[in-house]
């Protein structure tokens, strides 16, 4: 027997419809790629998104066709999103920090038919142009006046949607319909295509809106520094219209100065980004003796939150830090660091210790850790194992199957992360499965070593990798990028780790490099690092 | 093309699984029907709910079978819920405030096979016993020691689940499967059966968790005074385990003293009930000079919030009042009164004016007002019309079809309420369609007149009904129940309305009664009131 409730399909067009009808005059503020700040409303954005739909239909775009963007967070980018998704086409966000060859490879793999991009990215598109196999049309997200010279026959976005009808039917298809395509960062290998459905995006939106998740209300002002090409700006491009929160879009300028200006002038209450962006902001704030009186919550994820960033926000700026762990395959939120009940009145240091961990799963994310044979491991906060998960906004496969099988026989997705879970389901990432250092049959967490190493003031960045050892199989080597102008010694750095990690975890050596290689999302590229040290031999070997 | 995301069915057993795994030691505190206070945890409740499932299976209960409860909010009631729903049987909450004949009628209509009930309701069950046609077994929600004498052959709940296996598979059926059955209050006619699906309950849970909806987090302590037999305690019986909030269950005692004690001792942060309950509490607080330092949010709905209740909470007790409008058919939340952005810094009086309205719809509830021909009416805050709505947790039909067709050709459900909407979608109920007074072709809002009339200190309750008038078709009669020991005059009462309502809305007469008849959920029973005044003639007629 079925319930007798309405058949209301979970499609993302309803999110923007909701915003236009109920929060029509709430603003979307954009720092344009040209530098000036513009303002629109959900009502106006909704109408222009419908015009995008008409323009796409005129190009022959149909249900399931892929439309790509190479774009910053702006109101136009949002219009393009909803205009595409609303008619059941698939919005493919390409990460512009990839090499042009990779951009072309991804666009071809996705079989994108149209590419919309910001003027900033013209050089990438020109460089990749000869390799694109499926793109029929290039649209530059700007007005006619700002159109750059190009060899693509590109049209300006404003010209393209001008005069198009805003009367287009949205939705009206199954909620399982594909909605968005986003490739993983390619940190551990080739990027894999994650194909979101309307249903998964709407359910993730609901998850995002919870108090202990991102938790914004209609009166909030949200600045997603995290780009829309990183797994839907962690869901904010949906959750903000769904709640009626005002959106502040930072465009191309991630400098501390530019972000501070927006946070301050627009009275931003919630913001989200990866740690590296916050380092820039914090440096700017400290150098200029500035405060953040309006900001109440900063969400930090994508890689582990360094302690100095956590403390600066919490202690100097009195902003609540929500550490978040997620993956492209999780839409992306997996855990968040809202304080659990038993820590709300706990001493500050205990709270900070908790907030360095990755947090707890919201309803809609099932987490557990397993050993290599797939057996459940205890939630004791000590045992670490492969982190696997289930939920309505978690991948079941990659686009075209390229990335392999990802579910076990119980439907759990293998995250490729190694973690501990405690009795309250507080999760702590100890490593990537591919980065774990296996010494004498035991695991050493590269992330732990790195986190403590970067606590040294003379260290800008640090990475631990496993190096062959005749007796122990692998032993850790610590690679250090010194802070500008600094020359830390091996002993200095190792001293920093003393007493913080188990003695047998101590790296067998420290090597200094000018720059630790980073991937397209700012994470350490250990593949490349391992290549750099392919011929290296440990002094202990 | 479909997205490639996991097929994770939205079934409510996952809600309690989530609580047990991730918030296992959070408490559920119950004031037992016997008066003592007991404590359990989500983990223990989960295990006992599974034992209920085993007990039900032994009784031969299968997917789709109905299991009924006549019960207060207690941990046992929750166990019975999840134990029933987890195996795909349908939990039917019967309103114990109904007459025994109605209880029997509803149980027969639902074809309930098992009835679980609190000792308090034994007299009702005994009285209805001879009329029950389908109930095979009676279970009393208590221990063997507390079992009352009865002629039902009833078993004690604790005996019934004792030794039963907690190893039962939950879920594993389609999310459209029927999950709960709840009849409407019967204010305007016969109660109608609303059949919730697992999907609708889970989606409503997500809606409930939003900051501007009920918005609880894991650190909150929630006291649902609103009973589980009123549309799932407004969703709290799902939303609290979904977030890990501590639950405080008030059992049978709704007195100001009992509720205050729980609010205070358990440090409740969020609570919800109908206005009449809050009147009792406020009187008790004022008489005993008490404060509510922990409480931060009180949700009030089911009927319009009287101004004195709003002001007492907001001004004397500094608690944020969320006015809520809902219906059994909406699972039940439709609108909530979180302040919109433009009023957050507005003068207090403007905020109070807003909070007397019913609020705005969250994402997942589409609202509009239409005229009698179904044409959309403007959102100008003035025009009133029939309120219709759409959403994934809104009825498409009543159980067995008894209640008629409810959707229009666009899938909108007719609420039977008459309301205005403003440009921000702020909704204000002006009347029930059946209660609207039609004077000279124009509508007079009975609710408005009543709300102002009860503002008079000598008035305990007031109801406006339309009475036949030869010239105007109908004119309003105001029926007043004086406050204990008071004797207000007709002139006094009408003076109270002066300047607050349009002159032509002024009732043509005021009649005094000892008691205004109320229905099973404490709402004014206008059907009965109209019967009482069937022979009455207006002095102006
Ligand atoms: N708060 C965090 N702490 C530690 N690691 C994190 C955190 N948030 C995210 N990560 C890491 O980022 C990964 C997800 O990143 P993303 O989906 O962008 O691609 P990627 O895993 O870096 O790339 P690829 O899958 O292509 O190798 C997680 O699996 C985890 O390893
Ligand atoms: N905040 C509120 N202000 C005014 N009226 C409200 C409010 N909340 C609920 N109501 C009224 O309660 C109704 C829903 O109540 P419920 O589902 O319990 O059954 P009922 O409508 O009273 O009974 P029946 O449908 O059997 O006549 C709404 O349609 C509305 O008329
Ligand atoms: Mg990955
Ligand atoms: Mg009704």
TrEMBL record, chains A, B:
Signal peptide: none annotated. Residues 449-523 form the AMP-binding enzyme C-terminal domain. Residues 17-399 form the AMP-dependent synthetase/ligase domain. SUPFAM superfamilies: Acetyl-CoA synthetase-like. GO terms for molecular function: ligase activity. PROSITE patterns: AMP_BINDING. It comes from the Bacteria. Keywords: Fatty acid metabolism, Ligase, Lipid metabolism. Belongs to the ATP-dependent AMP-binding enzyme family. This is Long-chain-fatty-acid--CoA ligase. It comes from Henriciella marina.
């Amino acid at each position: 027997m079925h319930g007798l409730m309405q058949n209301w399909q979970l499609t993302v067009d309803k999110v923007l419809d909701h915003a236009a009808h109920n929060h029509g005059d709430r603003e979307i503020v954009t720092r344009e790629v040209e530098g000036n700040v513009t303002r629109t409303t959900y009502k106006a954005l909704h109408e222009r998104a419908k015009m995008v739909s008409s323009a796409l239909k005129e190009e022959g775009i149909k249900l399931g066709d892929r439309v790509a963007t190479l774009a910053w967070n702006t109101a136009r980018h949002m219009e393009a999103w909803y205009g595409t998704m609303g008619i059941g086409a698939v919005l493919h966000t390409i990460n512009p920090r990839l090499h042009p060859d990779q951009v072309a490879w991804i666009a071809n793999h996705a079989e994108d038919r149209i590419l919309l991009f910001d003027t900033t990215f013209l050089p990438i598109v020109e460089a990749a142009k000869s390799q694109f196999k499926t793109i029929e049309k290039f649209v530059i997200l700007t007005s006619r006046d700002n159109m750059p010279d190009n060899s693509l026959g590109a049209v300006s976005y404003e010209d393209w949607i001008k005069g198009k009808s805003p009367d287009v039917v949205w939705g009206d298809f199954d909620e399982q319909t594909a909605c968005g395509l986003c490739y993983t960062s390619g940190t551990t290998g080739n990027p894999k295509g994650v194909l979101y459905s309307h249903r998964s995006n709407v359910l993730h939106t609901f998850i995002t809106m919870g108090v202990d998740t991102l938790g914004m209300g209609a009166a909030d002002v949200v600045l997603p520094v995290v780009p829309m090409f990183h797994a839907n700006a962690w869901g904010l491009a949906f959750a903000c219209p769904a709640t009626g929160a005002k959106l502040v879009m930072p465009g191309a300028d991630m400098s501390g100065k530019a972000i501070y200006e927006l946070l301050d002038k627009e009275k931003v209450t919630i913001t989200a980004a990866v740690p590296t962006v916050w380092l820039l902001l914090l440096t700017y704030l400290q150098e200029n003796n500035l405060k953040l009186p309006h900001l109440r919550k900063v969400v930090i994820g994508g890689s582990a939150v360094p302690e100095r960033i956590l403390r600066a926000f919490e202690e100097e700026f009195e902003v609540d830090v929500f550490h978040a762990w997620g993956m492209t395959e999780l839409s992306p939120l997996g855990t968040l660091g809202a304080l659990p009940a038993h820590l709300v009145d706990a001493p500050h240091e205990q709270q900070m210790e908790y907030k360095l961990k990755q947090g707890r799963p919201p309803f809609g994310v099932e987490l557990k850790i397993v050993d290599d044979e797939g057996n459940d491991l205890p939630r004791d906060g000590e045992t670490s194992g492969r982190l696997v998960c289930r939920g309505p906004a978690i991948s079941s496969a990659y686009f075209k199957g390229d990335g392999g099988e990802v579910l076990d026989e119980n439907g759990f997705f293998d995250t490729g992360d190694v973690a501990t879970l405690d009795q309250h389901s507080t999760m702590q990432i100890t490593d990537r499965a591919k980065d774990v250092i296996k010494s004498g049959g035991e695991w050493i967490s590269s992330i732990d070593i790195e986190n403590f190493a970067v606590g040294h003031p003379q260290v800008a960045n640090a990475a631990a990798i496993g190096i062959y050892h005749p007796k122990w199989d692998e032993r850790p080597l610590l690679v250090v990028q010194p802070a500008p102008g600094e020359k830390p010694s091996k002993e200095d750095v190792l001293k920093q780790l003393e007493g913080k990690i188990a003695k047998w975890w101590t790296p067998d050596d420290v090597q200094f490099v000018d720059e630790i290689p980073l991937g397209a999302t700012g994470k350490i590229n250990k593949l490349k690092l391992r290549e750099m040290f392919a011929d290296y031999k440990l002094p202990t070997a």
